[in-house]
From TrEMBL:
Keywords: Membrane, Transmembrane, Transmembrane helix. InterPro entries: Mpv17_PMP22. It is found in: Membrane. Its main location: membrane. Pfam families: Mpv17_PMP22. Belongs to the peroxisomal membrane protein PXMP2/4 family. This is Protein SYM1. It is a multi-pass membrane protein. PANTHER family: PEROXISOMAL MEMBRANE PROTEIN 2, PXMP2 MPV17, PROTEIN MPV17. The chain crosses the membrane at residues 384-409.
Length: 416
């Protein structure tokens, strides 16, 4: 296997554009095959029986080879050239403009600060990439090209309809799947291998794109599991958590990203190497332990904590309900469940012995300082989030704040 990888690496260095076109087309085709195999079209037809009665029959469509061919054409001839130009040629040359040339030169000369400079540039590139390309380039381009290749009679109308139906759902899904991976990709992976790594990661993503593009009826109750994973509650509800499966993935990424930032910017020792096991423990805690509990907690807040005062006006009733939810969250969950759960779980995952003594020691040194930090960050933000931010944007807002908070948690956990 190392020999095969070495040969592929050499080929990619010699023929990066040609190789990326081939591999990208293959991965887009693989994504479409997965989408058609696991999530085929299901249509309901009404037929008349011999007795004259009507019944509904579900018909599952057969595998469509032209659809896979269209995905491969888009991947190799459209997506690959633009991706090579953007991710391979343009993005690596972009530097963080908030760092002056004088400071950049000083940081570059210092080996200890060089990694931090690289991290600052990586974060800026990631933000630029995620805020511009998914919503303004990739999603419209994918729909336009795939509709054109399908030879629809009115392609512009079909593209407009598809973008109206699925643009925001796909963009939300993109922000769930890609930022954590792209941070790792831009920071650790050499430039000539980044598109290949993205293509491997994108196999599932391409399946999702193919599914959403070729399936009617998006959202909850559609019966399509992939769609419901990225859908949020409707505007009549105030639940701010995603369905559990997507929440587990995104929370694991956020905890892992926070630990990655903590290790990079605030190492325990100047030349300390990156601790991959520590990062894995953060991901495990976020996805497997905290996400299910947090999912239930937010639903409990929304369903059970309401304003006891009626007939006081919608705005005042909403303000009182928001105040009660924030109070219960910050005075009950944070000090007695959230913070103890984090330190207990992380201590156990580290394998420290004796367990009880290690957990108590961590509580004595970190519980109060973490709680004070929590009260400085979350009450004001959660009030703003619950009261002013529209439902469809709340999760994105929470995710942005969570990256910094998870960095702080990891720092406190691993530094005395």
């Amino acid at each position: 296997m190392p020999t095969i990888f070495h040969r592929y690496n050499q080929v990619l260095k010699l023929y990066p554009f040609r190789t990326n076109m081939i591999t990208t087309g293959i991965f887009f085709g693989a994504g479409d095959i997965i989408a058609q195999s696991f999530f085929p079209h299901k249509t309901i037809h009404t037929e008349i029986t011999e007795r004259g009665d009507t019944r509904e029959v579900e018909i599952i469509s057969e595998y469509a080879y032209p659809r896979t061919l269209r995905a491969m054409i888009y991947g190799s001839l459209v997506f690959a050239p633009i991706s090579v130009l953007w991710h391979g040629k343009t993005l690596p040359k972009i530097k963080n403009p908030f760092i002056s040339l004088f400071r950049r030169n000083k940081m570059h000369e210092n080996p200890k600060l060089r990694k931090r400079l690289h991290f600052y540039d990586t974060v800026f590139r990631l933000g630029l990439d995620q805020l511009i390309f998914p919503g303004l380039v990739w999603i419209p381009l994918y729909n336009t090209v795939m509709v054109t290749l399908a030879l629809h009679e009115n392609p512009l109308d079909v593209v407009r309809q598809k973008l109206q139906n699925n643009w925001w759902n796909v963009l939300r899904a993109s922000w769930t799947v890609w930022p954590g991976f792209q941070l790792f990709n831009l920071y650790f992976i050499p430039v000539h291998l980044r598109i290949v790594c993205s293509n491997i990661w994108a196999t599932g993503w391409n399946a999702f794109l193919s599914f959403v593009h070729n399936t009617k009826g998006h959202g909850k109750g559609s019966g399509h599991k992939l769609e419901e994973l990225v859908d949020i509650e409707d505007d009549q509800q105030e639940i701010t958590m995603r369905p559990l499966a997507t929440n587990m993935i995104s929370t694991g990424f956020l905890l892992g990203t926070g630990d990655f930032i903590a290790q990079t910017l605030f190492p325990q020792e100047p030349d300390q190497p990156f601790d991959y096991l520590r990062n894995l423990r953060a991901i495990i805690y976020g996805s497997i332990i905290f996400a299910p509990i947090g999912d239930k907690w937010y639903k409990f807040l929304n369903n059970k904590i309401k304003s006891p005062f009626k007939n006081v006006g919608k705005k005042r009733e909403k303000s009182i309900a928001t105040l009660l939810r924030v109070s219960v969250d910050q005075l009950g969950f944070a000090p007695f469940i959230g913070i103890p759960l984090y330190y207990s779980s992380m201590t156990i995952l580290e394998g420290k012995t004796p367990i009880i003594e290690s957990i108590m020691e961590k509580f004595e040194t970190s519980w109060w300082i973490t709680l004070k930090g929590n009260w400085l960050v979350w009450p004001i933000f959660q009030w703003f989030n619950f009261y002013l931010i529209p439902v469809q944007f709340r999760l994105f807002a929470v995710n942005i704040i969570s990256i910094g908070w998870n960095t702080y948690l990891s720092y406190v956990m691993h530094n005395k």
